[in-house]
Structures are given as C-alpha cells and as structure tokens.
C-alpha cells in the first residue's frame, strides 16, 4: 500500500512539473527584462536597422546606454560613408559583398554605411530595413553626415 501511495505521489508531482513546463506556460519577452531598442539617425532622419546578434552590436549597444553615440561620417569612394567610433569593438570579420543599406564595422573602430556596393572583410552590424536604395543614396551621397546611435 505504501509503495502505491508513493508511486501516486511521484506521478502527481511529475504531472505538476510537466504542466509547469508546457507550452501554456507564460513566456517572458526580452523587452520585459530590460532589453532595449537601439535607434539610428542619419542627420535628422530616423532609420530602422535590423541589427545583427553579435558581440560588436552588443558593445555598440553598451556604448549607447552610456549616452548617444555621435559619429561624424565622411563620404568615401562614391558608395559609402565612414566614421570613427572612437573605440574598438569586438570583430568577427568575414569577406562580404555589401549592398545599399548595410551597416558594418571596419578595422574594429569604424562604422561604414553603404549606399552602393563593395567587397571587403567586415563585421556586419545590421541593415537599414525601411528605406529603398534610392532613399539611402539620397541620405548618404550628398556630403558628409552625422550618424547618431541611441537607446529608446
């Protein structure tokens, strides 16, 4: 009789544990535990960026948590804007052919935003997702710009 009661109690305990882990359990969204949104502006124009999930983006997010990151960009090569971040970020450079809207890390300490294409070894940071190639060219090809990265 005791063995039967112990088996029933263990079975009941297992059912409670399994139900607590089931798909009906409430999940916690990352935004509920302090995750923040990183925003990029080109001049006064806010652009949506699909940020990569890598150490360089995490380090950039940490910089932005301490205050807005302002990057003075310069036109280069007729297809990109380049600017110093003022510090090195973790690198995971891979040979890449960029497209308009790509945001990359070059040499560990420079952000590059493309309005054309180039092949080089970069760490990808993200891609501008709410502008087409023509809009990105309009934002970036008419002289040096200031980019601001902030946390919302």
UniProtKB/TrEMBL annotation:
Database matches in SUPFAM superfamilies: Cyclophilin-like
InterPro entries according to UniProt: Cyclophilin-like, Cyclophilin-like_dom_sf
Keyword Endoplasmic reticulum listed: no
Leader sequence residues: 1-25
Keyword Metal-binding: no
Gene3D superfamilies according to UniProt: 2.40.100.20
Stretches assigned to the Cyclophilin-like domain: 40-150
Protein name, per record: Cyclophilin-like domain-containing protein
Source species: Butyrivibrio hungatei DSM 14810
């Amino acid at each position: 009789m005791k063995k039967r009661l112990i088996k029933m109690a263990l079975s009941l305990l297992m059912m409670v544990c399994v139900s607590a882990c089931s798909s009906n359990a409430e999940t916690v969204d990352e935004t509920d535990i302090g995750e923040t949104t990183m925003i990029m502006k080109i001049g006064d124009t806010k652009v949506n960026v699909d940020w990569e999930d890598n150490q360089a983006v995490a380090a950039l997010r940490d910089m932005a948590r301490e205050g807005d990151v302002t990057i003075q960009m310069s036109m280069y090569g007729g297809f990109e804007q380049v600017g110093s971040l003022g510090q090195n970020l973790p690198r995971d450079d891979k040979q890449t052919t960029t497209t308009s809207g790509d945001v990359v890390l070059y040499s560990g300490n420079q952000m590059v935003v493309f309005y054309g294409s180039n092949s080089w070894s970069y760490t990808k940071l993200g891609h501008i997702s709410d502008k087409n190639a023509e809009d990105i060219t309009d934002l970036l090809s008419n002289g040096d710009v200031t980019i601001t990265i902030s946390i919302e």
